[in-house]
Amino acid sequence: MLTCGIDIGSVSTEAVIFNKENKEIASYIIMPTGSNSKTAAEKALELACEKINIEKDKVDFIVATGYGRINVPFADKNITEISCHAKGSLFYFPDTATVIDIGGQDSKVIKLDDNSNPIDFLMNDKCAAGTGRFLEVMAKALEIELEDFQKVFINTNGKVEITSTCTVFAESEIVSLIGQGEDKNKIIKGLIYSIANRITSMVERINLQPPVCMTGGVAKNLGVVKALEEKLGVEINIPKEPQIIGAIGAAIIASNLK
Amino acid sequence: MEKIKKYFKRSTDNNNYIGWLCTYTPEELILSAGFTPFRIYGSKDYNRAEGFFPINFCPYLKSSWESILNNDTHLKSIIFTNSCDGMRRLYDTCKKYSSIPVFMLDVPKNQNISSVNYFEFNLNNLIDFLNSLGNKKITNERIKNSIEIINKKREGLIKLNNMYRNSIIDIDTYNSIIKISTLSDPYLFVEELSNYIDSIKNVAKPKKPNILLIGNFINEDRLWKLFSELDLTLSYQDTCSANRYFEGLVENGNKPLGSIAKRYLYKSACMRIANLGNKITEIKENIKKYKIDGIIYISLKFCDNTLYFYPLLKEELKDIGKPSLYLEIEYNNFSEGQVKTRIQAFLEMIYT
Questions:
Q1: Is it true that A1-93+241-258 and A96-238 share their CATH fold?
Q2: pTM, whole model, 2 decimals?
Q3: Count of CB atoms within 10 A of residue B97's CB?
Q4: CA of B21, closest CA in chain A: separation in Å?
């Protein structure tokens, strides 16, 4: 039996097709959400099916998640990204006790109990500083590819303190720091630490409990992961493709519901 | 709220209002002076009021100040209570910048005989103030009549609460009627509410899970609409806008003023007034009584009394195995998508 999870985020949409019998991911797709979340969900399902040459009707149950989850008329159920990220993390790391998910505009920390059920969570509100979109804006201002952040983080000694939290103010702060002749690499390192600081205070508010799993697009940025490990004093497990964890969780929940 | 207003046309057609803000204001005395007690809900936008207060000031009071500045409801007077610091500052502001006569009612925190006597003394001062406005002279007989009708209003709201808990009406309708009850002539409202209750013939199955809502002054139509779309019942609303307002009758005996003082001091208290140990006991009793599955703790921004209480309560709730969700919202404004995700995730958490 095949089930599908579709995670419609603010920046990207992911679809995962899950095979219930052999408990394997049959196919997955990551694509930009664009301006219409409904179209993005349809397209993601189509592409994920195409990849393994099946028709859409071969998928038995679809669960939508992410901020666009309400707008997926063909989904059988919608489940919040909190439950899905928890479930998806457990697929790779069954003993996970804390999940940190940093997506395009959301950051959340989920605490799991001894039976791996979510018992508490925290989400950012009002402000999306320290999320994927924040990193994108900073990379643009620094004229550097986002992928190069981790290289810079590892190879640079010392950092420049970034004091602004707001994305817009932080952007002008780094522009003036460059103007003052500060080393660009040290600015990048400072930026990464500023994100790690924000996430750390959120994690501490929920009482950190290892093992920790990090999901969402920002987990691909090993610079942020390293800085966070240093701040939290624990190792962080990163799934092979952290961006599709919400969709995997949704597909697994779908397989349990069918 | 709009869909329900038509049932309460006569009681809300009034203009002899005295404004009040806090549930410690005895509506009985306002009514005895021949005025209609009118709860101030404030303006949707409060840009002018922002100029009078610091940025981290209670948004409900800012919004209230905007409506007082505009005086769009033509209030004859406003009764303040010293229930929190913000309220006292709003009283000061009102005294300095508005021509509306105002009165500050001192509410003691303790629940004992001395506090009741002291509060009764303060209520006598309030009577003098109300008499000075030159409408009806307050007599014992008038107070007793007012006690009777306000008690009837409370009984009607309790009936309505039972209807809501049995899903006969939705949360949106229920909370809208509570709001109307604070803006209308009590004599006509009691009549109209009774007619409304008689007109409802629905039979429904109660929705699960049972949620205990705890918070301060929550007045947000969009939030009630959101709750009504979800599978849950707000079995008890420990807020200034619901149960803490209407629960508890005044004993209608020979010493009406003492009875009023007692009812208000012994009713379910807010986080500012309550002894927190007693409040936790009360919350735990409500959890048992209403078979509560989870607690949603909701606060307006910058309400220190409400905010500081949550970490303590959360620990206590964890010990008895009850999950809780914390939400912070602005007044007349909240991010619907984000709040919905949190509540939905919380319900998923309760079900797993």
A1: yes
A2: 0.92
A3: 11
A4: 28
Among B338, B345, B352, beta carbon nearest to A117: B352
B residues 248-307 near A, CB within 8 Å? none
Q: How many CB pairs under 8 A join A and B?
A: 35
Q: Is-contact B149 B190, C-beta < 8 A? A: yes
Residue A5 is inside which H or E element, if any?
strand A2-8
Contact B338 A125 (CB under 8 A): yes
Show the tokens assigned to A122.
């925290």
Q: In Å, how far are A20, A70, A121, A247, B210 from A83, measured between CA atoms?
A: 19, 15, 10, 11, 20
Q: Give the count of beta carbons closer than 10 Å to the beta carbon of residue A145.
A: 9
Residue A5 near residue A249 (C-beta atoms within 8 A): yes
What CATH code is assigned to A96-238? 3.30.420.40
Under a CB-based contact definition with an 8 Å cutoff, are residues B103 and B129 in contact? yes
Closest chain A residue by Cα to residue B350? A119
Q: What is the ipTM score, two decimals?
A: 0.90
Per domain, the residue ranges of chain A are: 1-93+241-258, 96-238
pLDDT, tens only, A43-69? 999 999 999 999 999 999 999 999 999
CATH code: domain A1-93+241-258 is 3.30.420.40
Interchain CB distance below 8 Å, B352 and A118: yes
